[in-house]
Amino acid sequence: MTALPPRTFREVPESGPRRPAAERRGLARELARVVGEGGVLWRDPELLTYDADGLVLEKFWPDLVVLPRDTEEVRAVLRLAAREALPVTARGAGTGLAGGCLAEQGGIVLSVARLDRILAIAPDDRLAVAQPGVVNLDLTRAAAAFGLYYAPDPSSQMSSTLGGNLAANAGGPHCLKYGQTHRHVLGCVFVTPEGEAVRVGGPSVGGPALELLGLLVGSEGTLGVVTELTVRLTKQPEAVRTFLASFESVEAASQAVSDIIAAGMVPAALEMIDRLVIQAVEPFVNVGLPLDAGAALLVELDGPRAGLDRRGREIRGLCEGRGATAFREARDDAERALLWKARKGAFGAMGRITSGFAVMDGVVPRSRLPEALRRVAEIGRHYGLTIANVLHAGDGNLHPHVLYDVDDPDAAGRAVRAAHDILRACVELGGSISGEHGVGNEKRELMTLLYTPADLEAMARVKRVCDPDGRLNPDKIFPTGREPYVPGPAAGAAGTWI
Amino acid sequence: MADGAAGGDRRAATGEPWRAWARPAARVERPADAAALAALLGDCARDGTPLLACGAGTALAAGGAPEAAEVVVSLERLGGIVDYAPDDLTVTVGAGASLAALALVLAERGQWLPGAPAAGTAGGLVAAGFTAAEGRELHGLTRDRVLGVQVAGADGSLTRSGGRVVKNVAGYDLHRLHAGAGGAFGVLTEVCFRLEPLPERREVVTVAAESPAAAEAAWRWLRREGPDPAGLELEVSHEGGARLRACFLGDDEPVRAAAAAARAGWGRWGTVGEEGPEAAAAAPGALALRLLTAPSGVFAAQARAAELARSRGLAPSILSAANGGEVHVALEGEAAALGALLADVAARARVGEWHYRVDDQPPGWSAGVPPWSAEPAALRLLARLKAAFDPRGVLRPGSYSAARLASAATFFERGSQGDGR
């Protein structure tokens, strides 16, 4: 394994694999001939790790886990799965937060952990060819020798994989300026459920059959299993400026965000945390945020050195114009890391103020953020729950953390209900139920908030063409018509990556 | 059916760009709104009547000529701005919206839509898979700026994908299926774009290199040591030289600094200049081809394209988006020579030298090989998608039909003898 799924919580599994051990052993023997003895897991203890992803509210056991090493092995695995009519769920590092790689119908979990080679870096072409199990940050590290990096930077980037990032169309703080994963994947090879390899796109920026590539990115592994990616690498910026400002209220901070955009700037990142997060995070990062501040804004500019100082002064002026009470600029990389800690340390800090929390991922038009945050607070009051907010403010992407006490028997259920209400509010404000985490099994029933039956039918048509038997990552994205899952008393805390 | 659209229109052919691509007796419909357009599509599909959706008509042959349309659907009445949210840097427009008019509205608020050409419509821009050179390296492809669409389908439905927010990963990105598909999977009725602030400053630096080798060296220097341009074009001249043209966009100081660095760096490979004439676009009616390769492969692809053209007695104009790995070749000449040249290009695609796509072509001309290449398995999958979205094959008849896609797949099977028809 290149990366183990991070887990904040593990409980005794409620269920085991569906298929009997003898059948699993037989399949494992046959699969081992394809992927080698070390590439198949079928015994109960070995499967335990694969029963959930970063959303640990629901758990499902696979019958087998297979770890192929190249496209040909993936093809052979899929052919065998087709013969046996087994579901196949591809899995990256398991850091997803929407239950996107849960083996809800059992079957095979196809882990990309051994598809972990960077096949080529072409510095003048500014692209890399890599297998899907390569860890996001490892590609950036490998590209650094050429002054390049891989721009999508989900907070899970030290463990999440390129393949998982493609499946989720992952974002990150810097996608405000650089765009989400879809803008950085130039091409890929994917394997159909029948075991055929299909190559689309790359290495040109606008390659052939981009229609298919566009569908595949963000399809959460429901249309094909990606076995190779061609991705764009970006030149490292010459200079970076990072600022942290605190404000009396989220409204004031949101106004500052609008002012920055209106001044013709698209910063590399525009991140916000609210009062609760400040109070949780400041005591252990000591970055100097006033504990009574209503919100803090982290602004990062990058690009050519010339002119950045002027833009920095403008940002300071705009923030102060909205009553910024503290304004700090990072003088060096160490201080920059410290300022980012106020943002990225939010999750570790949550553990200090709550025993459990559910992270949501909603989007509204950027200008509706203050209203969205008011609605979030109202929903929290309605359910008697505290909600802390971390926001990709420049993108209008909210990550409300619904806090609850794991010893309170119905708190997790209330947290999930509150989360659903928050997403409903996002849609009412003109937004979406997911900005970067995906739909997975968590939000599939909420798709009807966003799309009409006809919209969903158009999507289902694609699914039927690409996966006629519905064996690739079943039960994801599309509503099943069941009530959304709401955990009972025994559920655990949600994951840590946003 | 919409009031005013029913019954059609048989106006004289003059000035109507679709005439070249539709049947002479084709009926023109001008639906008043998206619902009327969807109903019209449903009717056409039921009757098996092939139709061609048309914006400004400037890119109808992108991806190969449409054929035998009996109904032309003009999007001219779907031309309004539906929602402009300058604070959110997004705009939602009807598919028939004029890009020139949109640019004026956006400019009033200090914003623009990178990748949009001066002429054409919003829907056409997306459907044709076009991205203008200016700002392309900095701001990416048009398809990646589309946040959401509304589409009329062959089943008479009106559906949406994506939305009006800049981040959205709920469901499949069907808007990226429609981008570049020329209306083959449905007709766009509304598009939402992500915008950018207008740059404070724009500077252009050119270098007239004495040879293609000098141009390549100048390109590599810029790529490795020079400033990143917002757009970069490489034009090969008939005399054997080549001109690189870098456009810098952004804040005042960095653009001045970048342009100065480019001028200083490029001096050793030729005469450095400023703005200069923009490379001429391919004339209407010419064969315009796009060859796709890795960025560093552009120089070899240009040389090969020039050699192939000359061997067929053609004088090509070649303009490359070097950083994007695209070589644009424009050719005028006898139909037979153009056909032979495209067959040469296709033969090289079959052995994996490049991929290609016809961006425009003379009316009535047919090459006898597929108008664009892709891996056979991808073409087969596209053919199945096309059949699912348009079972009667009425949307954009011709180059993007399921049968053509399937035969193109056969053509590009290595070593096969398929003729691609």
Number of strands of chain B: 18
CATH topology heading of the domain at 1-198 in chain B: Uridine Diphospho-n-acetylenolpyruvylglucosamine Reductase, domain 3
CATH level-1 class of the domain at 1-198 in chain B: Alpha Beta
Q: How would you sum up the global shape of chain A?
A: globular
Please give the CATH architecture of the domain at 1-198 in chain B.
Answer: 2-Layer Sandwich
What is the name of the CATH class of the largest domain in chain A?
A: Alpha Beta
Low-confidence stretches of chain A: 1-13, 490-498
Query: What structural class do the secondary elements of chain A suggest?
Result: alpha+beta
Topology overview:
The complex is a heterodimer of chains A (498) and B (421).
Chain A: H1 21-35, E1 40-41, H2 44-47, E2 64-66, H3 71-84, E3 88-91, E4 108-111, E5 118-122, E6 127-130, H4 136-144, E7 148-149, H5 162-168, H6 175-178, E8 185-191, E9 197-201, H7 210-216, E10 225-232, E11 234-235, E12 239-247, H8 250-262, E13 269-274, H9 275-285, E14 295-303, H10 308-321, E15 326-329, H11 333-344, H12 346-353, E16 356-359, E17 362-363, H13 369-383, E18 386-392, E19 397-404, H14 411-428, H15 447-450, H16 453-466
Parallel strand pairs in A: 2-4, 3-4
Antiparallel strand pairs in A: 1-2, 5-6, 6-10, 7-11, 8-9, 8-10, 12-14, 12-15, 13-14, 13-18, 16-19, 17-19, 18-19
Chain B: E1 22-29, H1 34-47, E2 51-54, E3 69-74, E4 81-85, E5 90-94, H2 99-108, E6 111-112, H3 122-127, H4 136-139, E7 146-152, E8 158-162, H5 174-178, E9 187-194, E10 196-197, E11 201-209, H6 212-224, E12 231-236, E13 242-250, H7 252-266, E14 270-274, E15 287-292, H8 298-311, E16 317-321, E17 326-331, H9 335-350, E18 355-360, H10 376-389, H11 402-412
